Amino acid sequence: MTWLECLAVTLVAVIGMELFAWFAHKYIMHGWGWNWHCDHHEPHDNTFERNDLFAVVFGALNAAMYIAGSLYSEALWWAALGVNLYGVIYAIVHDGLVHQRFFRWVPKKGYAKRLVQAHKLHHATIGKEGGVSFGFLFARDPVKLKTELRDQAERGVATVRESAGT
Known about the structure:
Elements: H1 3-32, H2 34-37, H3 52-72, H4 74-98, H5 110-122, E1 125-126, H6 142-155, E2 159-160
């Protein structure tokens, strides 16, 4: 493969992971995988959450992609790199910036602030039903997300925390 093809496969994998993350978060983590994910939505002082098991599973799948790519397909190896890069971005931004697990910095403006606001609004619901902002790198306008949450609460689709400011 040329370096341009390698780069393209890697970037497509990073972008594809955002689509996969949205799907997995909405339909697995807030569906049949809620038992692992629920502690991520509740306040606690633990260093680790059951939710971290998803990272272990996804990391093992990523390792399998690297191995299979090394043995059978150069393109699969580069796709594994894209998946890995998405995981690193996710860990730094989601766990570090949004949930403050690694460092303390609250962005005051720009896209980083929008990401934090969108994710905080995702955590505004109680339980697995309803909710907004299931993706990660793409963050919709917080004003529209608040409106959507308010609508879900009025329709009885979601229970929204009082402190959510909707």
